[in-house]
Amino acid sequence: MAAKPKSKSAYAKAGVDIEKADKFVGAIADMVKSTLNDKVVKSIGGYAALYQLGVDEFLAATTDGVGTKLKLAFELGRHDTVGIDLVAMSVNDLICVGAKPLFFLDYFATGKLDLKTSRSVLKGIVEGCKLGRLALIGGETAEMPGIYQAGEYDLAGFAVGLVSREQLIDGSRVRPGDVILGIESSGPHSNGFSLIRKLLRGKVKDAAMMKACMQPTRIYVDPVATLHHELGPQLKGLAHITGSGFLNIPRINDGVNYDIELPDTFNMPKVFNELRTRGKLSWTDLYTTFNMGFGMIAVVESVLAIRAQNVLERMGVKSHLLGMVGRAKGKSRVNVKSSEFEVSLEY
Q1: How do beta strands 100-110 and 256-261 pair?
Q2: What is the pLDDT at residue 204?
Q3: CA 50 – CA 169 distance, rounded (Å)
Q4: Rounded to the nearest 5°, which phi and psi values hold at 205?
Q5: Positions in the chain whose pLDDT score sits under 70
Q6: What is the pTM of this model?
Q7: CA Rg, the chain, in Å?
Q8: Collapsing DSSP states into helix, strand and coil, what is residue 145?
Q9: pLDDT tens digit sequence for 251-310
Q10: What is the Cα–Cα distance from 335 to 83, expressed in whole angstroms?
Q11: pLDDT of residue 139
C-alpha cells in the first residue's frame, strides 16, 4: 500500500504511480481468487504466498525483478551485480514469513543474445543464489527481436521456500511495546530507480553516486535465519523495505502503529542525502520511496532487543533500535522522527 499525499509525489512525477499500482492489485484480487484452492493459505498482497503441503508445512513462493536499476547497468556496462539484486528481491521477501529458501528460477529476456553480457548476468544470479542458500534449478532465456533495444534486457526471478506452522512469521503476535529493529541496507537496493535516474540524468560520470547506487541488494538470509533460530517466536515480524519505502512496515501487522525515532548512532547513507538535495525531495517522498538505510525491519519482544542486535552483529550486519510498536487509532501509521524532521505515513 502507498501513502496518499495531497500533491503528486516525486516518484509519481518520475513515472511510477504507487497508488495506481495498489488500485490495480485491488482490482485483480477477485480474478486471482477465482484460481485458488483450499491449499492456498495466503496469496496476493503478502510478502510470500503460502501453499499447504501437509497439516503443518507450507511452500512459500515469491517473484520479483530488478526494475529500472537495469537502465543504469546498461549505461555503465556493468552486468555482474544485477543478478544478485534479482535473487535478493525475491529471497528477502521469502524470509519475511520465516521460510527456509529452497530453489530459484530466473527469466532473462533480450532482443539479441550477447554471450558476454548474459554470462556476466548469470554469474551474479549464481552468486545471489549462493548467498541466499538457493539451488538454481532452472530458468528461461528469451530472445525477442523488436521488443528490446540493442544491448538491453529484462530479468525476473522466482524463489520457493519451506516453512512449518511452528516457524511461520505472520505478525499476529506483534503487540504494543514490542521493539522495532532496523537492519542496515547496502544502499538504495533495487527500488526508486526511476526517480534516481531522473535525478542523475546526464551525470553518469558521477562515479561516487554511481558506485553507491549500483551496490547490490543485501541478502539477509543468513542473519535472519540465525536471529529466528535464537529468538524463536519472539521474532514477531519482518518487513523487507522495498517499493513504497517505510510503508512496507505495516505489512507486518496493519493493526498497530510503528513509532520510530532515528538514533544518533545511525548515520543515514550519503546517497540518500545527495538524492534529497538534488531533487529537493520532501522527507515524505524519501520515506515512501527508498529504504533510507534500512533494508529489513524486525519486530522483537522488548526484553530480547539487545540480544537480537548482538546476534546480527555476530552475523556481520549492523542494526539499530528504532522505536516501539504503539496502539493504532484508526489506520496504521508509521511515525518517523529525528532531530531534523518528523513525518507520519498512513498505511
Answers
A1: unpaired
A2: 60
A3: 12
A4: -80, 0
A5: 1-28, 42-45, 202-205
A6: 0.90
A7: 20
A8: coil
A9: 999 999 999 999 988 999 999 999 999 999 999 999 999 999 999 999 999 999 999 999
A10: 34
A11: 95
List all residues 6 or more positions away from 195 whose beta carbon is below 8 Å from its beta carbon. Answer: 10, 11, 14, 16, 275, 279, 289
Q: What is the pLDDT at residue 4?
A: 45
Beta bridge partners of 140: 107
Q: Which pLDDT score, from 0 to 100, does residue 35 have?
A: 78
- Which cell numbers hold the place of 61? 513462493
265, exposed or middle or buried, with CB in 10 Å at 0-12, 13-18, 19+? exposed
Report yes or no: 305 and 319 within 8 Å, Cβ to Cβ.
no
Please choose, from the candidates 338, 310, 68, 291, the residue with its C-alpha nearest in 3D space to the C-alpha of residue 184.
291
Compute the 3-state secondary structure of the chain and give helix, strand, coil in percent, each to the nearest 5.
Answer: 35, 25, 35
Q: Which amino acid is at 286?
A: L
Residue-by-residue DSSP string for 240-271: E--TTGGGGGGGS-TTEEEEEE--TT----HH
3-state SS, residue 187: coil
Q: Where are the beta strands (DSSP E) in 132-287?
A: 135-143, 153-164, 179-184, 235-240, 256-261
Q: How far apart are CA 99 and CA 58, in angstroms?
A: 9
How far apart are the C-alpha atoms of 249 and 126, rounded to whole Å?
Answer: 29
**Could you tell me the three cell numbers for 113?**
543474445
180 three-state secondary structure: strand
Q: What is the pLDDT of residue 265?
A: 86
* Grid coordinates given for 109: 529476456
Predicted confidence at residue 6, as pLDDT, reads 47
Dist. CA 196–CA 72, nearest whole Å: 10
In this structure, which amino acid lies at residue 262?
A: L
Cell representation of residue 201? 540524468
The cell numbers describing 335, all together, are 511515525
Indicate the residue type of 140.
Answer: E
- What's CA 178's distance to the chain center, in Å? 22
CB 252 within 8 A of CB 239: yes
Question: Which of 336, 236, 225, 340 has the alpha carbon at shortest distance from 290?
Answer: 336
CA distances (Å), origin 156, targets 18, 60, 82, 107, 247: 20, 17, 11, 5, 23
How far apart CA 94 and CA 224 sit, in angstroms, is 11
